[in-house]
Each structure stands twice: as C-alpha cells, then as structure tokens.
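Homework help board

Subject: predicted structure for assignment chain

Our instructor gave us this sequence and asked us to write out the predicted structure in token form, then describe one feature. I got the tokens but I'm not sure how to describe them. Can anyone check?
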Amino acid sequence: MAVKKRPRMQHQGPDWRCKHNGVMLGWLSCTAYSMAMGIDAATLGARKPTGCDVRMKTNDFVKGLTLSQVASVAAESYGVQVTVRTGKHTIAPDKAWEQASLGRGFVLQGNCDALIGTPFRSTKGAVNHAVWVNRVRGGTPAHPKKEARVFDPAADGRHAPWGTACKGPSWWPWETVMAFAANLRNDSNQKIGSGKMYAGFVPKPKPESGLVLLPGAKKTSPFPDRQRANPPALRETKPVRAG
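My token output:
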C-alpha cells in the first residue's frame, strides 16, 4: 500500500491567521488550508503554500470555498492537477479508498456533526468543513480495521466552552470518514447522504531525484457542483449556500 509524504500540519485558526483588507478569514478557509496540505504532499514538499496563500489566490474573500476554486489554484499556481468529484460526479467511498491506497490523497468536504461525541471533534456543532486525507491503511487479514490519516485544519487542540478540540493529524476509522462525508449539507440543510463523497484528488507524488540536467540548464516550472465548506468557529453557524 502506498505511503504518502506527510505534509506540514496547518491550522486555520485563530481567525487572524488569514486576513484580507481587515477581514478575518482564518475560520472561513478550511478548504484552502486542506488543499495547501495536499499541494505539499503531492509535490513531496517542493511546494509548501500556506492555506492563506491558497485563499488569497482564489480572489474570493467571502464565506467558504468550493473544491473547484482551490483545485484551480493548485493547478495554475503550483502545477498540481486535482481531480474534482462533486455534484453529479461524486465518488463512492470504496472508490475513494482505492485511489487513496494508490497514493492519491484527497481534500474531503463533509460536516462536523458526524464528529460530535468522537475523539476527532474540532468544532462546536454541525458546520460544513474540509480536511486533507493523506493516506489509508488496513483492510487486510493482518490489519482488518480500515483507517485514514486525516489532517483537520481545525484540529489544533484549542480549549473552548464546548470542550477541547482534537490535536491532529489523527487516524480516523474509515466509518468516521464516510459519516463525515455523508453529512455534508447544502444551504437547504439537505445532506448529501451515504455512498457519496465530495472530494478533490491530487496525483500520486513523483520524486524528482532522478532528474539530470545539462550544465547550465534549469527546471521549469442534484446536489450542486459548487458546494462550499465553511470552516469551524467557536460558535454555531448555519449551513452555507452553494455558490
């Protein structure tokens, strides 16, 4: 089973961690922070944008972001082609597992309602959110329990009135990953439902160690498709609208 490079863990909070013209965007940028970790993993650390870097390049400074928005930034600014599976093209959990087992990590949008009451809780309530799924393991006779290594940008260990957030990254049971994905909601509070995932897959990373340059040469460098995932806040927030 492929083992991916571990990206640098990035936290989206506090709110001031990312701001534009005085507008605090930290807690509104979970999809950007998750994609930033994906770019780091996909390029084996050659490109390490911050989540705020990705957010700024979308030129969208209102509410949450879509997978398509951050995928465009990954491709245009960092050379990482992301396969977006949303809307009518959602991916089934077993297919997502297969892709991850081949070394293709993915940004996953879901809802934190599924994390309440688990060791992986990172928000107060049921808010749409995004995480980076770096790799998977298990599903074999020797290791039957299937798990995913999840980098949750809200999992910073902070203390809040509702409790203490998880300190990531963490190994989530695959059932938790599926529940998180199935709870993703549109602005009418409808859940995407089981058997579907809104996800953006990066390519399997390719080491550049074998590249040989000539002297003097240089390297060159029915659910809506636009579902947004809002990051967590320290207070209850309403499900966001599809943009």
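Reply (TA_rk): Your tokens look well-formed. For the description, you could write something like this. The chain is about 20% helix and 20% strand. That's the kind of observation they're looking for.
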